[in-house]
UniProtKB/TrEMBL annotation:
<dbReference type="InterPro" id="IPR016160">
    <property type="entry name" value="Ald_DH_CS_CYS"/>
</dbReference>
<feature type="domain" description="Aldehyde dehydrogenase">
    <location>
        <begin position="15"/>
        <end position="469"/>
    </location>
</feature>
<dbReference type="GO" id="GO:0009450">
    <property type="term" value="P:gamma-aminobutyric acid catabolic process"/>
</dbReference>
<keyword id="KW-0560">Oxidoreductase</keyword>
<dbReference type="GO" id="GO:0004777">
    <property type="term" value="F:succinate-semialdehyde dehydrogenase (NAD+) activity"/>
</dbReference>
<comment type="similarity">
    <text>Belongs to the aldehyde dehydrogenase family.</text>
</comment>
<feature type="active site">
    <location>
        <position position="249"/>
    </location>
</feature>
<dbReference type="InterPro" id="IPR015590">
    <property type="entry name" value="Aldehyde_DH_dom"/>
</dbReference>
<protein>
    <submittedName>
        <fullName>NAD-dependent succinate-semialdehyde dehydrogenase</fullName>
    </submittedName>
</protein>
<dbReference type="InterPro" id="IPR016162">
    <property type="entry name" value="Ald_DH_N"/>
</dbReference>
<dbReference type="InterPro" id="IPR016163">
    <property type="entry name" value="Ald_DH_C"/>
</dbReference>
<dbReference type="InterPro" id="IPR010102">
    <property type="entry name" value="Succ_semiAld_DH"/>
</dbReference>
<dbReference type="InterPro" id="IPR050740">
    <property type="entry name" value="Aldehyde_DH_Superfamily"/>
</dbReference>
<dbReference type="Pfam" id="PF00171">
    <property type="entry name" value="Aldedh"/>
</dbReference>
<dbReference type="InterPro" id="IPR016161">
    <property type="entry name" value="Ald_DH/histidinol_DH"/>
</dbReference>
<dbReference type="InterPro" id="IPR029510">
    <property type="entry name" value="Ald_DH_CS_GLU"/>
</dbReference>
Length: 475
């Protein structure tokens, strides 16, 4: 049930399915409540309001915007427990993980509250004595975003905070499966003093309709999307008509590499953190494991022993480390991919059996080859296929053999190898002897078909700013 300490966070709920979308707890199948949906005309009105509000917001002093964002951050932190409970109820991840995401999501608001005061231009040495050259940075205008269900707070704040800090207005369409957190954090923004026309949450009859409005409306100048590469291609194509700016954080197929000189105990712990966080439902989680043949059996044995200790269940229960997957379709996809790998010759290290409901038992697969389907497809579930390799050259070729290039990980204690592999991996992010790499202070994003643009770090706010060059003559 939606029992929380701050009922104002739920003021957006409507009374019945006739007025909105039902939100269901994936752990037990209970309907949590109904979230309002808007017509196409209503969403277009939201965009028009955002355009009007953006001009007032951009005219506000950067320090004042910074103060409002700081207040938003503080309110998110004050309501951390309620937000985490909402997240576990609608998304399924264990409560401790949900609490971690709330803090992580809030960190972007805190970071960009400071960056709002640092959107500096520059002076340029002139080529003639009677000229003065400089640049200034200005907000792109109305920005919109489409966010996924797996990180229902962090994926919003990572986009909204830099947009607002830059002076843009911001409209977000959260995933229909996990909209509660989106409306709740927006309510806290309003309580912090951020105008309602400057930050808006919308849901339509279906996702493609909202996407079409966002990509075609002339008042929207920037679209940020986190989701599949397939959908990202469609949104980029549609955005091209108006030459809208886009940021795309798309699919991943992260390799996790363990060299023969690695600290195996540390690699096992890093593998657990990277692979099984959020039941394996993250775009940067390890998707395929490459282990040097000389330590393959040792690593697999220790890794599997640790995986067998993971407790699967309702995320609100004490001691649960792996919650449900998000939907029946997701479970079926994971099971089909795993069963196909077994048909192709992979073997579960320990007994693997289907679980009831939307739960999937974590499993380590050995005897996997690089040619199997499970290696080339994003699993998005708690399944860890482990592949043996013999040389650095063979490893690099296999690791880069994918259209994706978001995150990668490797463990080695050889400094010469560290530099060589870090530079050779064709990925936007590389974790070296580390399984968790995301932070608000560093740029997040991929290469190849994993997307364009960066979120977080000092680079994140530039995605929402235009550079204007000024040339003063007659000096």
């Amino acid at each position: 049930m939606l029992n929380i300490n701050n009922p104002s966070l739920l003021s957006f709920l409507v009374s019945s399915e006739d007025d909105g979308i039902a939100v269901t707890n994936p752990a037990i199948g209970e309907v949590l409540g109904y979230v309002p949906i808007q017509t196409e005309q209503a969403i277009e009105q939201c965009i028009e309001q955002a355009s009007i509000g953006q001009k007032r917001w951009a005219a506000m002093a950067a320090k004042e915007r910074s103060g409002l964002l700081r207040c938003w951050f503080e309110l998110i932190m004050e309501n951390k427990e309620d937000l985490a409970r909402l997240m576990t109820l609608e998304q399924g991840k264990p409560l401790a993980e949900a609490q971690g995401e709330v803090v992580y999501g809030a960190s972007f608001v805190e970071w960009f509250a400071e960056e709002a005061k640092r959107t500096n231009g520059e002076t340029i040495p002139a080529i003639a004595g009677n000229k003065r050259l400089m640049t200034i940075k200005q907000p792109v205008g109305v920005a919109c975003a489409i966010t996924p269900w797996n990180f229902p707070i962090a994926m919003i704040t990572r986009k909204a905070a830099p947009a607002l800090a830059a002076g843009c207005s911001f409209i977000v369409k959260p995933a229909e499966l996990t909209p509660l957190c989106a409306f709740a954090v927006a309510e806290l923004a309003y309580q912090a003093g951020i105008p309602r026309d400057v930050l808006q949450v919308v849901l339509g009859q279906d996702a493609p309709t909202v996407g079409s409005i966002f990509t075609s409306h002339p008042l929207i100048r920037k679209l940020s999307f986190t989701g599949s590469t397939q959908v990202g291609r469609i949104l980029m194509e549609k955005s091209a008509h108006d030459i809208k700016r886009t940021s795309m954080e798309l699919g991943g197929n992260a390799p996790f590499i363990v060299f023969d000189d690695a600290n195996i105990e540390a690699a096992v712990q890093g593998a657990l953190a990277s692979k099984f966080r959020n039941a394996g439902q993250t775009c940067v989680c390890a998707n395929r494991f490459y282990v040097h043949s000389s330590i393959y059996d040792q690593f697999v044995t220790k890794f599997d022993a640790a995986v067998q200790q993971l407790n699967v269940g309702n995320g609100l229960e004490d001691g649960v480390q792996v919650g449900p997957v998000i939907s029946l379709q997701a479970k079926q996809n994971i099971q089909a991919l795993t069963e196909r790998a077994i048909e192709q010759g992979a073997n579960p290290v320990s007994s693997w059996q289907p679980l009831d409901g939307l739960f999937v038992a974590p499993v380590v697969l050995k005897d996997v080859t690089h040619q199997m389907d499970i290696v080339s497809q994003e699993i998005f579930g708690p399944v860890a296929p482990v592949i043996a390799f013999d040389s650095d050259e063979e490893l690099i070729e296999m690791a880069n053999d994918t259209i994706y290039g978001l995150a990668s990980y490797f463990y080695s204690q050889n400094i010469h190898r560290v530099w060589k592999i870090a530079e050779a991996l064709e990925y936007g992010m590389v974790g070296i002897n580390e399984g968790i790499i995301s932070t608000e202070v560093a740029p997040f994003g991929g290469v190849k078909q994993s997307g364009i643009g960066r979120e977080g770090g000092k680079q994140g706010i530039d995605e929402y700013l235009d550079i204007k060059y000024l040339c003063f003559g007659g000096s």
